[in-house]
Amino acid sequence: MIVYLKFLDHSSGSNIWLSKEEFKQECIIEECEVVGFLEFEDDKAYYLSTMRSSTDLGSGHNILKSDVTYMKKYPLKTVLKTFQSKKLLQCINRLVMSIFR
To answer: Is the pTM higher than 0.85?
Structure first.
């Protein structure tokens, strides 16, 4: 299954000592997006990859379910069957447009 997720991500800009005011400015919560293969999920997180080979996975992401603000699932058979058709560009365009609506 291919999924599109919007999720709240957090980060810290440095690993040095900061004043409390600098700390408040460095700690950012931002909405991010990812499209990938849903490899598996458990009660806490979704586990995605954005690249696959017959034996390996690449660009892995684990995203906490509690941070997900939006999710859309695309069955892999539907996506692959459409990609094999002559209307590949139309399908990609529709997929991209539906993601960014």
So the answer is: no
Give the integer Cα–Cα distance in Å for 41 and 46: 4
The DSSP code for 6 is: E
The residue segments making up the domain with residue 26 are: 2-75
Number of compact structural domains in the chain: 1
Is residue 34 domain-resident?
Answer: yes
Per-residue pLDDT of 71-89, as tens digits, reads 999 887 665 555 555 455 6
One-letter identity of residue 20: K
- The verdict on residue 98 lying in a domain is no
Question: Is residue 85 situated within a structural domain?
Answer: no
Q: Which of 33, 35, 32, 47 is nearest to 73 (CA)?
A: 35
Identify which has the larger pLDDT, 19 or 15.
Answer: 19
